[in-house]
Every structure is written in structure tokens, then in C-alpha cells.
């Protein structure tokens, strides 16, 4: 099952089920049944507002987010779907950090659930830097279906990898 690189952490049984869907050319169909349409957040401004709304709802006391944008330089191939960066600058006698979130441009044309999963993941990095138990607990606090959306997103990446066609464009 080496061709299922996005699903390598899942059980052999799960990988076999996905391989069967691919062999029958049904993986895209399954995803389209679960998620029928893409979101409407096409601009950086709309994405920024969406992420700020999530932050306001779940992470009120966290440091502010200075920038949120789609980034065409992020490649899924390099195992990055989004990036959270903290840029530290000295202003006077103080050290200030500016937080930026960048989301791969491919997420302009996916269901809102996938975009939400990426946004929640990157927001969680404001509080928790490592991908540990506390990090995933925070992710599931902000989005109870986080793990399902992550799995389905991995299915979509696998579908893109095997068939090469976008489902929601």
C-alpha cells in the first residue's frame, strides 16, 4: 500500500478499504456524497475574517493573528497544508511576536469542513507548538469532528494523487 502515502499512519485494513475504492474508481464519489459543495471563502480577506471568528470563539486570550492568507508557495507534496509562523521583532525594549497563518491555495476549492480543519490546526499552534496530546485535544475542542475531517482530507489528497482531478472546482 505504498501508493497511499497520505494514509500511511492508518491501519492496514483502512488502507485496503481505500485501495478497493480506488480500484473501483469510487473514492471521489464517496467524498462527493459526504461533501457536496465547496466553501465560498475565496479571498484572503474572507479567510482572515473566518479565522479571526474561530479565534474569537475559542481562543479569546491567545495572542493576536496579524495575517491570514492563501499561499500558492505551500505545496502539499512537502507535507504542508498550512503554516503558522511567529515572527519576532524587537520594538524599543520589548520583543514582539507577529503570528501569521498561511493556507495552501488548493484549499480555495474544497468543502468548508476541510478549510475549518486546516484553520483549527493552525490556530491550535498558537497555544500548543508540538503535535502532542494537548495539541489534538485543543483541535477537537475547537472542532469535535477534527479527526474525521482530517481523514477525509487525506482521502481527498489520495484521490488527487491517484486520479489527478479536483472534485469541487
TrEMBL record:
It comes from the Bacteria. Pfam families: YgjP-like (PF01863). This is DUF45 domain-containing protein. InterPro entries: UTP_pyrophosphatase-like, YgjP-like_metallopeptidase. PANTHER family: UNCHARACTERIZED PROTEIN YGJP (PTHR30399), UTP PYROPHOSPHATASE (PTHR30399:SF1). It comes from Duganella alba. Residues 93-153 form the YgjP-like metallopeptidase domain.
Amino acid at each position: 500500500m505504498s501508493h497511499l502515502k497520505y494514509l500511511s499512519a492508518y491501519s492496514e485494513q483502512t488502507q485496503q478499504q481505500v485501495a478497493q475504492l480506488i480500484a473501483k474508481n469510487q473514492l471521489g464519489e464517496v467524498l462527493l456524497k459526504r461533501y457536496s459543495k465547496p466553501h465560498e471563502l475565496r479571498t484572503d480577506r474572507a479567510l482572515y475574517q473566518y479565522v479571526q471568528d474561530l479565534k474569537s470563539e475559542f481562543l479569546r486570550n491567545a495572542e493576536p493573528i496579524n495575517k491570514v492568507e492563501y499561499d500558492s508557495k505551500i505545496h502539499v507534496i512537502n507535507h504542508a497544508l498550512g503554516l503558522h509562523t511567529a515572527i519576532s521583532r524587537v520594538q524599543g525594549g520589548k520583543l514582539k511576536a507577529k503570528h501569521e497563518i498561511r493556507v495552501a491555495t488548493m484549499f480555495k476549492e474544497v468543502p468548508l469542513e476541510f478549510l475549518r480543519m486546516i484553520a483549527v490546526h493552525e490556530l491550535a499552534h498558537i497555544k500548543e507548538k508540538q503535535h502532542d496530546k494537548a495539541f489534538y485535544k485543543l483541535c477537537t475542542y475547537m472542532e469535535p469532528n477534527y479527526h474525521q475531517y482530517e481523514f477525509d482530507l487525506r482521502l481527498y489528497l489520495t484521490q488527487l494523487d491517484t486520479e489527478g482531478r479536483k472534485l469541487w472546482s
